[in-house]
Automatic annotation (TrEMBL):
Gene Ontology biological process terms from the UniProt entry: protein K48-linked ubiquitination; regulation of Toll signaling pathway
Family: Belongs to the pellino family.
Name under which the protein is recorded: E3 ubiquitin-protein ligase pellino homolog 1
Pellino RING domain ranges (all copies): 279-426
């Protein structure tokens, strides 16, 4: 029990900590961006209650070209969305301040209205240099999330974000339409897709169905391809409310939404570090070289060292690095990853193992016993099983399962393998 003084201290100090609504975590990064997290460009972003509400809600609709419509567009202090129907006609929807919500904007632009700057994720790439040459498909002002400032702090997602002059422009080519209640709505070029897992983000999670979110936050079935002119069918029974484990795809990067409550049940980095030390304390050995293996510290998570465990992905036998079973074609420098396991003669890729360090991707706190195929990222069995079932958008119309820690497409029957460690012989 607290003494009254202690109780006072804990309540006064807690008032300084802002309420956290949740966090967005970019898939494909193992705890931080390759060149380190900087400013608004990082691998995860916390959405916290703002000192002053900055949310907006729709108010007046103007059909252009009338003087008020033009004024609304040019008014730098007024948020508005402009729907260009033709050269002769634009509908402008003015937005007013909403004191009940906080707005957070996500996109590729580094302009000030963007709270979280997201760039394209290149699967398995270790440096941002790998990603620069790619023509980005992420919108500069991709989406916005509005969080209720009062419990239960509901977070809702909308396609498109307001630019520096507080406008969203949907040009002639964008899909747009008049709704049944005479309001306007539309979709962005490459769309904002959302998937809510069934049974939340837990050991029992199952993939949900991918949907597209409109500029006004309505839910639609997917278009035939990302930028098709024809919208999908409206799904009346679903909402744009984010739940723990919701995935948001911006066509080039996928974000995982974790609620503050969900994160409180997630393993901490301390817990993952304790699990790493536990594996190392068991002194697993290489069955060929008999040397002791050890997972490197979380900070050294990109360069293999001599104690690094390696795995034969076909069978799951863990070894140290060795040249045994090196086939002729490999010695000649062709297709270098296939090896024959000395324990069971299974042939397949032979890769170093890396711990999954981004705790937000774990569905439970169990020990890291399984590795994704083909990248060798290690996590708990339930976590591996969950991600191997999730179809993530890839390109403009395909989906495939990928490792959450490096975004590499999963291969093999299951997409992951159980690790078989050999204990010390003494």
């Amino acid at each position: 029990m607290y003494s009254p003084e202690q109780e006072n201290i804990s309540t006064t100090s807690s008032t300084k900590v802002p309420v956290k609504y949740g966090e967005l975590i970019v898939l494909g990064y193992n705890g931080s961006l390759p060149n380190g997290d900087r400013g608004r460009r990082k691998s995860r972003f916390a959405l916290c209650k703002r000192p002053k509400a900055n949310g907006v809600k729709p108010s007046t609709v103007h059909v252009a070209c009338s003087p008020q419509a033009a004024k609304a567009i040019s008014n730098k202090d007024q948020h508005s969305i402009s729907y260009t129907l033709s050269r002769a006609q634009t509908v402008v929807v003015e937005y007013t301040h909403d004191s009940n919500t906080d707005m957070f904007q996500i996109g590729r632009s580094t302009e000030s209205p963007i709270d979280f700057v997201v760039t394209d994720t290149v699967a398995g790439s270790q440096s941002n240099a790998d990603t620069q040459s790619v023509q980005s498909t992420i919108s500069r002002f991709a989406c916005r999330i509005l969080c209720q400032r009062t419990p239960p702090y509901t977070a809702r997602i909308y396609a498109a974000g307001f630019d520096s002059s507080k406008n969203i422009f949907l040009g002639e080519k964008a899909a747009k339409w008049k709704t049944s209640d005479s309001q306007m709505d539309g979709l962005t070029t490459n769309g904002v897709l959302v998937m809510h897992p069934r049974n939340g983000f837990t050991q029992d999670s199952k993939p949900g169905v991918w949907r597209e979110i409109s500029v006004c936050g309505n839910v639609f079935t997917l278009r035939e391809t990302r930028s098709a002119q024809q919208r999908g069918k409206m799904v009346e029974t679903e909402t744009q409310e984010l739940v723990d484990g919701s995935l948001i795809d911006l066509c080039g990067a996928t974000l995982l939404w974790r609620t503050a409550e969900g994160l409180s049940r997630t393993p901490t980095l301390k817990h993952l570090e304790a699990l790493r030390q536990e594996i190392n304390a068991a002194r697993p050995q290489c069955p060929v070289g008999f040397n002791t293996l050890a997972f490197p510290s979380m900070r050294r998570k990109d360069t293999p060292d001599e104690k690094q465990p390696w795995v034969y992905l076909q069978c799951g036998h863990v070894h140290g690095y060795h040249n045994w079973g090196n086939h002729r074609e490999e010695r000649e420098g062709r297709e270098g990853r296939h090896r024959e396991c000395p324990m069971c003669r299974a042939k397949g890729p032979y890769v170093p193992l890396w711990l999954g360090c981004e705790a937000g991707f774990y569905v439970d706190a169990a020990p890291p016993t399984h590795a994704f195929n083909p990248c060798g990222h290690v996590c708990s069995e339930k976590t591996a099983a969950f991600w191997s079932q999730i179809p993530l958008p890839h390109g403009t119309h395909t989906f495939h399962a990928a490792c959450p820690f490096c975004a590499q497409q999963l291969t093999g029957e299951q997409g992951y393998v159980r690790l078989i460690f050999q204990g010390p012989l003494d």
